[in-house]
């Protein structure tokens, strides 16, 4: 799963009358590495002016001020239907008031006595606000598309009325299914977020008064809620790659691999990973989806590596003539054309060959969560991305000897006839020539 990245220079509005406390919050966020600009207000008038001119991305508010308070400020936000995360930062709010305000819609709260979770809660709040906007935009697009579809349907005349009816029903059903999958997954996060907030409150305030059984049970709830959140996020990723955007472009796989390696650098160093990358020809793909594919494959290798054994990952690609591809006798290969072959191999724990097909089934896991974390969706996403490219993926596992993934993507005439000019300029022209040369050499 790709970690959420906060956009640069977010705007933080601080509703705080204590200058020392405001400075302490600003210093803490700066020290945490957050890139932001801030504005400090302490009255209703200042707060309203900041909403109108500063346009904050997030609001951090003290609970009680001499002439204003967090409850009144949050009421203003709700009345104006502003989708701005609202976090209370206070040392006097009390647990009961915090729980009540969260039930009323306040995003979260942080004690002034402990800022350690502030950056994490800001990150989570900004992510959820962004997803809410994305949800609303999706609904709006669906309304527009549905309206356009209805208008278009009125102009069409089919000879077979029953076939026309079924085609329309199928198209609408597919759109509604994707929308339902995304929206329901997103809406599941709201009650789960509250569960995690209440668990955090209990772990901060009540753990010392609990029996050992109580502590163990609370920790189990915390682990289960965290796993549920990961499952929902993975389902949303699966939903996104299920909608093919058809935005193909000439891509240099080395750049994509280097980008993924940078993101996973800590885990790569921890596993003493050695990469052997060779023969990577440029390829015409949906770049964002293929980046997700490579990220999932490398993450999978890191997760299922052998203990105390340096991880070795080999990545290479080649172009197979149609007769070479046919000689492989692979299933589901209808197109008569040449194929681009991408190979990914590691020396991890592998699996028994009888599970070569099972590992691509969504939610399919070969190991208990106590041994290896995960939701069983990562490789299902990989397979879906390959299918979006009209390709085939084959897994070849060997227990305790690693696994090899072979991906075959058809090279259609559109892939071969590369443009001499493009919006990307000389760089894409060079990559296009490289792909043309690689194809001709084979």
TrEMBL record:
Documented EC number(s): 2.7.13.3
Enzyme type, top EC level: transferase
Domain of life: Bacteria
Residue intervals passing through the bilayer: none
Residue numbers of 4-aspartylphosphate PTMs: 62
Pfam families: HATPase_c (PF02518), HisKA (PF00512), Response_reg (PF00072)
Keyword Coiled coil: yes
Catalytic activity: ATP + protein L-histidine = ADP + protein N-phospho-L-histidine
Domain Histidine kinase residue range list: 183-413
KW Transferase (keyword) present: yes
PROSITE patterns in the record: HIS_KIN, RESPONSE_REGULATORY
Name this polypeptide is given: histidine kinase
């Amino acid at each position: 799963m790709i970690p959420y990245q906060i956009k640069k220079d977010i705007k933080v509005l601080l509703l705080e009358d204590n200058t020392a406390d405001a400075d302490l919050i600003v210093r803490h966020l700066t020290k945490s590495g957050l890139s932001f600009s801030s504005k400090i207000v302490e009255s209703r008038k200042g707060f309203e002016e900041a909403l109108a001119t500063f346009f904050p991305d997030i609001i951090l508010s003290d609970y009680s001020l001499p002439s204003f308070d967090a409850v009144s400020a949050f009421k203003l936000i709700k009345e104006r239907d502003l989708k701005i995360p609202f976090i209370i930062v206070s040392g006097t709010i009390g647990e009961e008031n915090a729980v009540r305000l969260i039930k009323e819609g306040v995003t979260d709260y942080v004690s002034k006595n402990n800022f350690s979770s502030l950056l994490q809660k800001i990150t989570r709040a900004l992510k959820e606000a962004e997803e809410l906007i994305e949800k609303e935009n999706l609904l709006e697009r669906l309304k527009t598309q549905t309206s356009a579809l209805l208008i278009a349907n009125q102009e069409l005349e089919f000879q077979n009325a029953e076939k026309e009816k079924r085609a329309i029903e199928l198209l609408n059903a597919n759109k509604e299914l994707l929308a339902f999958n995304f929206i329901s997954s997103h809406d599941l996060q709201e009650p789960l977020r509250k569960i995690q907030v209440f668990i955090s409150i209990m772990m901060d305030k009540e753990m010392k008064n609990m029996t050992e059984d109580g502590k163990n049970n609370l920790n189990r709830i915390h682990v289960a809620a965290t796993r549920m959140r990961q499952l929902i996020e993975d389902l949303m990723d699966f939903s996104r790659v299920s909608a093919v955007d058809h935005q193909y472009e000439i891509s240099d796989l080395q750049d994509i691999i280097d980008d993924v390696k940078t993101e996973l650098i800590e885990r790569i160093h921890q596993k003493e990973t050695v990469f052997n990358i060779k023969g990577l020809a440029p390829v015409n793909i949906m770049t964002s989806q293929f980046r997700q594919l490579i990220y999932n494959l490398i993450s999978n290798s890191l997760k299922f590596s052998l203990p105390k054994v340096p991880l070795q990952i080999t990545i290479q690609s080649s172009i197979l003539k149609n007769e070479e591809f046919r000689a492989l006798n692979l299933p589901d290969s209808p197109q008569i054309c040449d194929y681009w072959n991408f190979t990914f191999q590691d020396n991890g724990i592998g699996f028994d060959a009888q599970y070569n097909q099972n590992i691509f089934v969504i939610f399919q896991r070969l190991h208990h969560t106590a041994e290896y974390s995960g939701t069983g969706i990562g490789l299902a996403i990989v397979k879906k991305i390959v299918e979006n490219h009209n390709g085939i993926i084959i897994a070849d596992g060997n227990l305790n000897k690693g696994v090899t993934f072979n991906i075959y993507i058809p090279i259609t005439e559109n892939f071969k006839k590369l443009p001499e000019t493009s919006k990307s300029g000389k760089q894409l022209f060079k990559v296009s020539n490289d792909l043309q040369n690689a194809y001709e050499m084979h």
